[in-house]
Amino acid sequence: MIKPLFPILVLAIIMTSCVSSKKFKTLEQEHALLRKELSQSKKKAKTATQIALEEKETATATIQTLEENKDALESEVNILRKDKADLETRINTLVYTQANQSSTMAAELKKLNEALTQKEQELMAKENAVTNAQAQLEKAQSTLAEKEASNLQLESSLRDREKRVNELETAIQEQENKSKALKDKLSNALLGFNESELTVEQRNGKVYVSLSQDLLFASGSANINVNGKKALAKLAEVMIKNPDIDITIEGHTDNIPFRGRGDMKDNWDLSVLRSTAIVRELIKNGVAPTQILASGRGEYFPISDNSTKEGRAKNRRSDIILAPKLDELMEIIGN
User: Fold this and answer.
1) Highest mean pLDDT among 179-188, 189-198, 214-223
2) Closest by alpha carbon to 282, among 207, 230, 323?
3) DSSP designation for 290
4) Kind plus residue range of the DSSP H or E element containing 278
5) Which of 25, 310, 326, 333 is deepest in the core (most CB within 10 A)?
6) In the predicted model, what is the mean pLDDT of residues 114-129?
7) Domains of the chain (ranges, CATH numbers)
8) Global pTM?
């Protein structure tokens, strides 16, 4: 039963090996997009704010002019009303004395009646003008209020976007700091090994510990030797003190075909079994199984040229990839 299930296990392990890397790339793309959108929003907000301020100044000037015109019209209306009252008084006086007046008085009365009619028409026109001025004033005030409300909303939206970008940048920087601190701890823990046996690097917010085949395994074997166990024990000490990291173990080979031995048929099998052997050794030294993911990549992710002896030696390696958890970053992007 073991042999039929083994390829399925290998496939499942391989399919999950890139999840953490894809998460981080998604975060970087989201961060770049947010920075671009923030820049565009700032430009639009600056333009919209300038337009709003100019429109506000224009509206304010218009309102002032309308108020002045309204006051002037009301003053004229008051004068017309007084003139009308004076005319009515004079007419009443003339009507009272009309019987005793000459034809000259009758002509004057007609003239005064005509003047009264004209004044009434002027008064009506002025009152209509006052009504129109009041309507224009109210409309201008309403437009100004809408512009101010729109400007406030735009400023609020820009502040929210800046806050989100700042939070994302802070979280990414914190992850970078955690990765650097983890790299320093691992480098210090592995000071007894030379660069031909292992290297420690920080890339893309993660720490990569690359261990050569010669340090861990004999040729064609998935059994960890004594020096390899010492190196893994030192790595485990650091991992135990950092439970908030995800750990991926990747097995790699050169491109020379593996002839098969026991259950191992090819380089795929060899890389997977070496990866799971490292996982078991780390768990044996106290690392939590829930932190670790094992995968084998065979010969398909070389870091050097397989056409040379030196290049093939570099490609026969096991990579331990440590990454701070992305929960906080994913939460920021999800909001």
Assistant:
1) 214-223
2) 230
3) G
4) helix 267-284
5) 326
6) 86
7) 39-174 (1.10.287.1490), 190-326 (3.30.1330.60)
8) 0.54
CA angle 202, 38, 147 (to 5 degrees): 165
Q: How far apart are CA 88 and CA 110, in angstroms?
A: 13
DSSP state of 289: G
d(CA 267, CA 301): 12
What SS3 state is found at 145? helix
| Backbone phi, psi, residue 211, to 5° | -110, 130
CA 331 to chain centre: 12
User: CB count, 10 Å around CB of 51?
Assistant: 12
Pairing of strands 317-324, 245-251: antiparallel
Instruction: Report whether 308 contacts 162 (CB < 8 A).
Output: no
Q: Which helix (H) or strand (E) holds 64?
A: helix 19-97
* All residues at 6 or more sequence positions from 171 whose CB lies less than 8 Å from its CB, including other chains: 328, 329, 332
Which run of H or E residues covers position 13?
helix 2-15
Distances (CA, A) of 58 to 55, 61, 65, 130, 181: 5, 5, 11, 21, 58
d(CA 35, CA 103) in angstroms, rounded, equals: 93
In sequence order, what E strands does the chain have?
Answer: 198-203, 206-212, 245-251, 292-296, 317-324
Whether residue 171 is predicted with pLDDT greater than 70 in this model: the reply is no
Contact residues for 246 (Cβ-Cβ < 8 A; gap 6+): 20, 291, 293, 322, 323, 324, 325
Q: Which two tokens stand for residue 66?
A: 């309308």
